Known about the structure:
Blueprint: H1 18-23, H2 35-52, H3 62-88, H4 92-118, H5 122-129, H6 148-167, H7 174-189, H8 202-215, H9 220-228, H10 231-240, H11 253-262, H12 272-277, H13 280-287, H14 289-295, H15 309-353
Helix pairs in contact: 2-3, 2-13, 2-14, 3-6, 3-8, 3-11, 4-5, 4-6, 4-14, 4-15, 7-8, 8-11, 10-11, 14-15
Amino acid sequence: MLASAALVTATFTAKSSESSFETLTPSQGVPRFPVLDGWRGISILLVIAGHLFPLGPKSFAMNAGVAALGMAIFFTLSGFLITTTLLYRPVVSEFLIRRLCRIVPLAWLFSLLVLGWLRASPKVFAAHLLFYGNLPPFLLTEYTSHLWSLGVEVQFYAAIAAVFALFRRRGLWIIPLVCATVTAHRIETHTLISIVTSLRADEILAGGVLALVCATPGARAARSFLARLNPIVLLPFAAAASNDLCGPLDYARPYLVAAMVGSTLFLEQEDLASRLLRLKSLAYVAGISYALYILHPIVSWGWLASGTPLTKYAKRVPELALVFLLAHVSTFYFEHFWISAGKRWSKRLRRNARPAPAGSAHGIN
């Protein structure tokens, strides 16, 4: 489910200098960081690899761990994006319109087609269309189980929008507190990983904390600390924290991943990691990542996943090529239509809400 990069404005590009964070104001627009394209591309590739290809001996549980790492990176990016957007474009209605136009159309189309084919019950349809299938009693199906993450995502949108509507920017400072509370709840319940929002949201919230660090002038020391970290050194620790076999280390997963991503935002000069994260190929994968996430389980359905292991995985390469083609078409035609519509609707709403000039006979323009 990965919301996209360049075309769909899901990632940021900006100057990485210290002063850029301290002088940027909402009127200057949302800052952009090109390395996040790379992280988004990496996140979906990790998810696909973990879900669709054999990774190491089964006893090492590497498939689940790699997929979990990919999702942790994605959630971190999502929390960073959402919080930064609200900091620099503080209009809740515009935020909700754009986010829902990004997420809902493809998710609903996929859900309606699959659930119609399965002849699912109305309550299963409702859980999918209203994005609460990741909560007990877990009404997702075998073919839509990966959509649990959309539940976490949309529930976070609703919660953060409500907080922002009530308390404006200062309400965002609840993010670190709630993040720590979710992690404490995981520790209390011995939950290493879960699809339930109250036990998984610390990954998104850690991204929100990172956004606050970026945007707060007084957080210079935190930014300097992150700049001294090496993402390549942090990667194996983040991977270990995504594997259940590492036990309590999993509780640190949100913070290790946020630190790993954050360490690439404040570099004063380009290094190997930043060059890799700026690869055009990763940026392209990032651009179609949401559609890839929604569509990639298709290759594990029925005949597509049948046969001996050799046959199954030999078929998987051309099957994935077809999924990439479908994701490209979806991103640049179907999704692009709705994203553009969301931008138009939000701009129209902003124009209509603008106070009329003095002397106008009407309340709005």
